[in-house]
Amino acid sequence: MLLQVQAVTKTFGQKTAVDKVSFEIARPAMIGIIGRSGAGKSTFLRMLNRLTDATGGAVLFEGRDVLGLRGGELRAWQSQCAMIFQQFNLVPRMDVTSNVLHGTLNRRSTLSTLFNIYPEADILKAVEILDRLGIAEQAPKRAEALSGGQQQRVAIARALMQDPKIILADEPIASLDPMNAQIVMDALRRIHEEDGRMVIANLHTLDTARRYCDRVIGMRGGRIVFDGSPDQLTTGAARDIYGADASFSEAATSTSIEALDETYAREMLA
Amino acid sequence: MADMTAPMAPVDTIARAYLADVRRKRMYGGILLVLFIAMMASGFRLANERNAGGFWDGLPQIFDFPSEVVSEAWEKAALLPALFVKFSPSLIETVNIAAVSTMIGALLAVLLALVSTRGLARWPALIGLFRRAMDGMRAMPEIVIALVLIYILGGGPVPAMIAIAFHTAGALGKLFSEVAENADLKPVEGLSSVGAGWLQRMWLGVIPQVAPNWISYGLLRFEINIRASAILGFVGSGGIGYDLKLAMQWGQGRYDQVVAIFILLFATIVFFDQISGYLRNRLSKGQSNGHG
Asked: Taking the complete model, does pTM exceed 0.90, yes or no?
């Protein structure tokens, strides 16, 4: 078993954000976690990366509990478990290649980081990864000068530079337009297929989850309420996840261009 | 999407150009580091030669005076509580001078900051003028203003208060203006769109955004001003500085008073630092909200 999540819980004061979440992943797959805002998706991913400490439970990766790691071991785990954020979380004033090279920080000494010294092999690899994501010519530019979609690809490049076993993506396309959203999701899918890395992505649109994921987990109020293949994700199941009534229309949450057809537009304007 | 349509440069060209760039930056960095070390070393030698004594000869004696003060105070430790009580009135006077001058200086600084910040200024053409005015206020040492004013107005807390307020206006004005420069202009634009006047836009659009930072800078300045007001006591403006001068002047047998005064000043700074943290927390918590 590659990844076992056992009764992971997080409480903030009185409020339970993540409530005894358990599931298992046998081999690298692309997994989508869906649910409405406040369902606990972000908190859960942040606990996997250990940005947030869990209140209870265990996460076994290759048989080792990662929730108990501390110090150097914790940072080593974080470098194996890359995180991609909704707002990209790059260092805006540094150039794109340096941002990608930050993926190697766990292997670098603090002194060489202070003087911004990286091995040439790593620099070449960083540019190569940027090229793989189609943004090599942005390499010398400042990260803040790039568009949202390009910045998110830089963030993915940083994640790949970590050479991680898992890539966690927390709403990676929520701040992007449909065109860029597709480029970013295609990139994540390709990384999964070509490199065989596990990808766990929080998504807030059903069609993205259906289109790109091998397995979909639905969360509501901190609990898992759905766990199955994209085919099993019927409109009824989706209503359960989002706690919506019969007026729930999937087109309303869609970001794909085709779904926003004229009928829907007319309906909304009426 | 420009990056998809633009002709793709071959990757190794990009990589080579970037590597050349990195090497050049490293070389510049190395040269700067060597220059820095060389200047520090030569500057140190020059300064050491001009000193009356030598740095290395004097170094072992650096703690002689403090240890003498502390050991003498230690012997008379039982007297300290009485000394605290004795010096409290002059401490209050010193803190009062600092508080009044910080408040007056900060009010002036708010006005100066708002008229000298790009994007907010009432008269953009005069930004330079107001900035130079603040530079001038900062350039003048408090002690010089105080000495001149004491000569004209006579000794006492008023000259010290004016001197400190003058300097505070210049110093805080610059910091306030830098904070305001980073303020989000969208609320200001929103208020403009409803026809608000300049003062209304500043009061509702800028002040709420910058208040936490301004208050923490203001309280830091207050701490600095407590110290400044103590120093001005040396030149005759009263307060705890005057007592400190007397205690140190008399030399023999008064070091317990010196220690008592330092402890009082330290406790005062700690007290206001705690208040500053508390106020800042309360102000910024009002703005934050939970995340999903």
From this structure: no
